[in-house]
Design brief:
mainly beta; Jelly Rolls; five-stranded antiparallel sheet; 24 strands; about 15% helix; elongated
Length: about 300
């Protein structure tokens, strides 16, 4: 498979492909740490499949070292950069599955830009809501000497879903296509409408929670400038709630985020394959009609003399 076209960011955060089409962003907007939260935590995506690699990244506030009195409180190590004598902070990132079991715990150095990154592979047999927590490491015994509000700012967390995809078979005149959908919502009524060049489905979940759905659409089925609508309202191309998580010459995968309750999600394109050819019942009906007409003519010819005799 060939890779997706090279993209460039617009000033609105959306992207323009080399084909000239506006598209959704290929990554979520970066969450920056600040004086209200000394460290940020986010995942590359908000939903994954079992066994996939997850990247967790973030940053620390650039005023942190001065705020806490520098090396007096923070655990630091030499910056892992050739020719550098600088010291840097350490971040511990812990990941738990839906049962609270720790599946990954890693230490990461903060780079010269204040950023950190870790990656790990998900278990093959686990699904549900996972959590990732990042904590700035302090020197032994120091954390208890900090006030509660300051200590709370030294850590942050995020959640992401892990679900197996379901394949929905869409019949067209060019054959059947699989549309893969994974979600932490209940997904129903997936339908393809070739006339309106769209795929639609319903999602439902517990009110007050966040929902996320990942849908992979074959380009032979629906292509062009894709746009997502939630309950009929179009998501703008600079929205952080819709990203193109992957794209190849054969298919496009969208990640769609929303607040839970019940929604109708629609993905529209500019080109779509046609519906299946009409059933053979139409020609069969035509043949039956021809037979019926022939029988009627014979009956008319047979009974016509009798009718004339009666009318004399």
């Amino acid at each position: 498979e060939s890779s997706a076209p090279t993209n460039m960011k617009t000033d609105t955060g959306s992207e323009i492909t080399t084909s000239g089409q506006v598209s959704y962003m290929s990554a979520h907007k970066k969450v920056n740490a600040d004086a209200n939260g000394f460290v940020s935590t986010q995942t590359e995506r908000n939903i994954y499949k079992p066994g996939e690699q997850v990247k967790i990244y973030g940053s620390i506030w650039n005023g942190l070292f001065q705020q806490l009195g520098g090396a007096k409180y923070l655990a630091t190590v030499p910056l892992n950069t050739a020719g550098s004598n600088s010291m840097t902070e350490l971040i511990t990132v812990k990941v738990q599955d839906s049962n609270g079991t720790v599946i990954s715990s890693q230490e990461s150095q903060v780079d010269k830009n204040g950023d950190y990154l870790i990656s790990f592979n998900l278990p093959q047999d686990s699904t549900g809501t996972f959590s990732a927590e990042s904590m700035i490491e302090t020197k032994a015994g120091v954390l208890n000497s900090l006030d509660v509000s300051t200590g709370a700012k030294l850590e942050s967390s995020t959640a992401f879903a892990v679900q197996n995809p379901d394949n929905y078979v869409v019949a067209t005149k060019d054959g059947n296509f699989d549309v893969a959908v994974s979600s932490n919502s209940t997904v129903t009524n997936l339908a393809f409408n070739p006339d309106n060049k769209m795929i639609s489905f319903n999602v439902q979940g517990k009110s007050g929670t966040r929902g996320v759905t990942m849908i992979t659409i074959p380009k032979a089925l629906l292509i062009g400038q894709l746009q997502v609508l939630i309950d009929g309202s179009a998501e703008p191309y600079n929205s952080n709630d819709v990203i193109v998580s992957s794209e190849t010459s054969a298919e496009t995968t969208l990640e769609i985020n929303y607040h839970h309750s019940t929604h109708v999600i629609t993905v529209t394109g500019t080109q779509a394959t046609e519906a299946p050819a009409e059933s053979q019942t139409v020609p069969e009906f035509g043949s039956l009609a021809t037979v019926a007409l022939a029988v009627s003519i014979i009956l008319i010819i047979t009974f016509s003399p009798r009718i004339r005799n009666v009318t004399r």
